[in-house]
Amino acid sequence: MHSILQRHKVPIMARSFSSIRPRPYSGKTYDQIKTLRNHVFPLYTHYYKEPFYPVEGEKEFIYDSQGKKYIDLIGGISCVNVGYSHPRLTRIYEEEAGRLMNISSHYIHQYQGNYAEKLCAELGNGLDTTFFFSSGSEANDFAVLLAKAYTKSNTVLALRNGYHGTAGHSYSLTNLLTWNSQLNRSVQLERLAWPNLYRSSHSTHEAMLKDAEEQLDSGSNGKVAGLWIEPIMGAGGIVPLPPHYIQGLHALVKRHGGLYISDEVQSGFCRVGRERWGFKWQQVKPDIVVMAKAIANGQPLSAVVTRKEIADSLDHPYFTTYAAGPLECRLAG
Ligand SMILES: Cc1ncc(COP(=O)(O)O)c(C=O)c1O
């Protein structure tokens, strides 16, 4: 992690991390916590057979309630890019807690504009307009609305095995066995093939592109709203999608008048390495970039960044209560 941070000139303050870890833990035990969950939906899933109850983190390490130390190899769910308890972020928390813990997004503050400007400069490619939310699902939901408004089409494209969230239209885009439900289709979705680099595929990229073209010709009236791509399929198994195939899909969606949406909720913020963003690595020019998770090191902030002409296609007021408060924007910035 340090070498990535150094490469991207992120100041590392390793020596300021507390050296006395873990702190004494006197909270509830795992069994006590379990009994407290009677009034919580049983839909929450846990990926372990034996109880794992994390209570504290520092840098890339997590401690459980027994003080046992683990290395967190995935940083939450691709969220904690600069590690746990980072001193710079902790300081921002402390400062903002003593100022405005919550301020409605109806009011302006300097950090939102500052960060939007920084983000647009980082992304380039004419992406100059940002809308903030609190989760990746909300951001994708809004991106569907935007694509529909801009193109006047109700047909969206996503890859089989893809994950784009669980709220509103984002649930419609999600196409992965574990997360599919009978309830999650609010738009017409065409499911396109995905090449799995790690398991032999029965088809070549060219054949998959041809199949996608046929599917579009038969499944839409010739117009599509947009194509959603996770440059590296996250929930679908951390599978990078070959640039060649993605470039072919990009050209296809453009021929049908649709927008290209790079869902960088997992792949953004340097998680693809040197190119920093999945779409840069895949060498495609997105119309919309959606991001969340690592944007504020796992605090609830997400963003949709697009070009002004696309943003202008929505002209009614739109807002969510918690998005882009001073705390989250400072953490992100
Ligand atoms: C690629 C991708 N898009 C969207 C989402 C949804 O984000 P959130 O869980 O913040 O709603 C996720 C979540 O894992 C994701 O991996």
Low-confidence stretches: 1-5, 10-17
Please report the distance between the alpha carbons of the first and last residues. Answer: 19 Å
Rg over CA atoms, rounded to whole Å, is 21 Å
Task: Assign the CATH class of the largest domain.
Answer: Alpha Beta
Task: Tell me which CATH architecture of the largest domain applies here.
Answer: 3-Layer(aba) Sandwich
The amount of helix comes to 25-40%
Q: Oligomeric state of the chains?
A: single chain
Name the strands of the widest sheet in spatial order: 4-12-11-10-7-5-6
Mean pLDDT: 89
In N-to-C order, the SSE pattern is: HHEEEHHHEHEHEHEEEHEHEEHH
Shape category: globular
Based on secondary structure, the structural category is alpha/beta
Largest sheet: 7 strands, mixed
The fourth-level CATH homologous superfamily of the largest domain is: Type I PLP-dependent aspartate aminotransferase-like (Major domain)
- How many helix segments? 12
Tell me the β content: 5-15%
Question: Which keywords apply here?
Answer:
single chain; 333 residues; alpha/beta; Aspartate Aminotransferase, domain 2; 2 domains; seven-stranded mixed β-sheet; three-stranded antiparallel β-sheet; 12 helices; 32% helix; 15% strand; disordered N terminus; binds pyridoxal-5'-phosphate
Task: Walk me through what this model shows.
The chain is α/β, with parallel strands linked by helices and 333 residues long. The chain folds into 2 domains: 2-73, no CATH class; 110-332, 3-Layer(aba) Sandwich (Aspartate Aminotransferase, domain 2), CATH 3.40.640. Helices cover 32% and strands 15% of the residues. The strands form 3 sheets. A 7-stranded mixed β-sheet has the order 4-12-11-10-7-5-6, with helices on both faces. It has a 3-stranded antiparallel β-sheet with strand order 1-2-3, with no helix packed on it. Helix 7 links the parallel strand 5 (155-159) and strand 6. The longest helix has 16 residues, at 136-151. The radius of gyration is 21 Å and the shape is globular. The structure holds pyridoxal-5'-phosphate. Residues 77, 135-137, 140, 163-165, 230, 234-235, 263, 265-266, 292 line the site of pyridoxal-5'-phosphate.
